[in-house]
Amino acid sequence: MILCGRGGLSRSNPCLQYHRNRHRRRRACDKAPAARLHSLAAPSVQELKMNCPSSSSSCCGVSPPVLASPRGEFAAGCSTRTTQKAHFLGSRQSSQLIYSPTSSRLSRRAVIALAGKQSWDIGRFAKTLFFFNGPPNPLKIVESIMSSITASAPTEAPKKAETSDVVLVTGATGGVGRRVVDVLRKKGVPVRVLVRNAEKARTMLGPDVDLIIGDVTKGDTLDPKYFKGIKKVINAVSVIVGPKEGDTPDRQKYSQGIKFFEPEIKGPSPEMVEYLGMQNLINAVKESVGLSEGKLLFGFKGNLCGKFVWGALDDVVMGGVSESAFQIQPTGSETGEATGLFKGIVSTSNNGGFTSIRTKNFTVPEDLSAYDGVELRVKGDGRRYKLIIRTSYEWDTIGYTASFDTMKGEWQSIRIPFSSLIPVFRARTATDAPPFDASNITALQLMFSKFEYDGKLNPTFAEGQFELPFSSIRAYISEPITPRFIHVSSAGVTRPERPGLDLSKQPPAVRMNKELGSILTYKLKGEDLIRESGVPYSIVRPCALTEEPAGADLIFEQGDNITGKISREEVARICVAALASPSAVGKTFEVKSTVPFSEPFVIDPSNPPPEKDYEVYFKELKDGITGKEALEGTPALV
């Protein structure tokens, strides 16, 4: 029992205890973490009212003093005398809250711990800023905090994306190339040409032609930045062959394709043009046209897990106490191999409620303009997560966001089209944001949050532990995939080394392969580079090219066995048609007309035959047939 006599106060009397400890409580307040600013701000008087367990309609003061339990819950009721100052007492794990009648406003250095509230870990907040922004700059920190208080939108929005579906034509001043340019223009397709001679190109193709000046035999002239915006390529580059006796300025002897003239190589060798030149061209355009299997951004093939540096970005930045981390599980994937892991504990204390992991800004922005979206391979837990893609190096700016649902305990592929991304700034839709720019991706972020957008809540949110294994993140091309790289090769490329072949019945290029610098051998090597590159391709192998008009009946074959002739105009039309055909992707085929060499093909210029439906031919093509089967002793696929 506690006794209080007239001659003095008992040492166990709570009144005496209160007065003796009052000074110590004030000193403890000075050591408390800084008050939250804006979203980190200390609660208002109205918030104190809402959290007070008293039946009183207001919570303006205490009498006698209010003591908080180690859980931060009130141990006494509130009265309504005067506004009090809040102080933390004790350790971070076991904080006590005292309201003393000394001030009419909240201390600016106080951290409020009401029912369910916990102290803010300002050290973790500082570590987060340091991880993503580098060594602290006091001026920038102040600017960042002031911006977080006052800003409602980012100060510098990402640049507007430039969208285009430009087709690059290489070898555009050659016989097939210039016709390809003409066909594309007639169809209204934007064209850019790669040429060595600008004056020749403008004379032949017009003064307004969009040019890249470069030479496939010189890799340093093919800077990939010149190819931005290009989605597809038709390659008509070929080593130059001409009559030994000479030719006319417009190469009439060679171009006619019917009468034979003793040939020789003019200019760079077949190895330089057909093989090394192909290497250079593929390296230059590969990022722009994309890969059939997509671009792996995160995964454990080729050590890509170390490409990005991940760090936690949790609600500590707004005063919360949730914590998450990125880890690698050595055997956590569905195949028993390594996988990434986003895990943590989420809490709504201190008005928090989200955790996330985010990559540091990429040293060089990722250009994913060749792709249609991002695919995540995850093992779900039945909850809804967010993917945030950032296109700015700024710390606090718009993120292009999509939510995705997961199935509990199952590995699944989640495809997020770029077209579905919502521009979001601090959980609110940014209605005036520029379009998403897939060519300038600076960071990726995975988030588990209580909040959706514009005040809506995540219906699957629950406080506590969570984890989301993810084995890969890759950019993808939407199905059906169409060819992105069309290459004009030549019939006969597999024949010079084919055993048992009667060369006397073969075209001159096959018979004279070695005399012509192994022209067909290097053409085949160039084809192999395309097939191995991963780009969606189609390889067209015309028989002897002529200046005859298009319109003759055609034969499409595979296996590299046919001989004959075909119009350059027809080949140009086939190449352009293949760009839009899923049936043509990944196919290698030969083509000729049904008209014999001895018969010229003519048409009535006033009534030319209609353009063919080449899809009829493409649909009959098979995968995996190149003609190399005869060289390797393997049967052709049928």
Descriptive account of the structure:
- With 638 residues, this protein is α+β, with helices and mostly antiparallel strands.
- Strands 7-6-5-8-24-25-29-27 form an eight-stranded mixed sheet, sandwiched between helices. A seven-stranded antiparallel sheet has the order 12-15-22-17-18-20-21, covered by helices on one side. Strands 11, 13, 14, 16, 19 and 23 form a six-stranded antiparallel sheet that branches.
- It is elongated.
- Residues 310-468 form the NADH:ubiquinone oxidoreductase intermediate-associated protein domain.
- InterPro entries: Galactose-bd-like_sf, NAD(P)-bd_dom, NAD(P)-bd_dom_sf, NADH-UbQ_OxRdtase-assoc_prot30.
- Residues 171-287, 483-582 form the NAD(P)-binding domain.
- Round the mean pLDDT to the nearest integer and report it: 79
The share of residues in helices is 10-25%
Number of helices: 13
The CATH topology assignment of the largest domain is Rossmann fold
Q: How many β-strands, per DSSP?
A: 29
CATH architecture of the largest domain: 3-Layer(aba) Sandwich
Protein name: NAD(P)-binding Rossmann-fold superfamily protein
Domain NADH:ubiquinone oxidoreductase intermediate-associated protein: 310-468
Domain NAD(P)-binding: 171-287, 483-582
InterPro entries: Galactose-bd-like_sf (IPR008979), NAD(P)-bd_dom (IPR016040), NAD(P)-bd_dom_sf (IPR036291), NADH-UbQ_OxRdtase-assoc_prot30 (IPR013857)
Please specify the SSE layout and strand pairing.
Layout: E1 4-5, E2 8-9, H1 14-30, H2 45-51, E3 85-89, E4 96-100, H3 122-133, H4 138-150, E5 166-170, H5 175-186, E6 191-195, H6 198-205, E7 211-213, E8 230-235, E9 240-243, H7 252-256, E10 263-266, H8 270-289, E11 295-298, E12 310-312, E13 323-329, E14 339-346, E15 354-359, E16 373-379, E17 384-390, E18 399-405, E19 411-417, E20 422-425, E21 428-429, E22 443-449, E23 464-476, E24 485-488, H9 508-511, H10 519-533, E25 537-542, E26 544-546, E27 554-557, E28 565-567, H11 568-578, E29 587-593, H12 615-618, H13 629-632
Parallel strand pairs: 5-6, 5-8, 6-7, 8-24, 24-25, 25-29, 26-28
Antiparallel strand pairs: 1-2, 3-4, 9-10, 11-23, 12-15, 13-14, 14-23, 15-22, 16-19, 16-23, 17-18, 17-22, 18-20, 20-21, 27-29
Helix pairs in contact: 5-11, 8-10
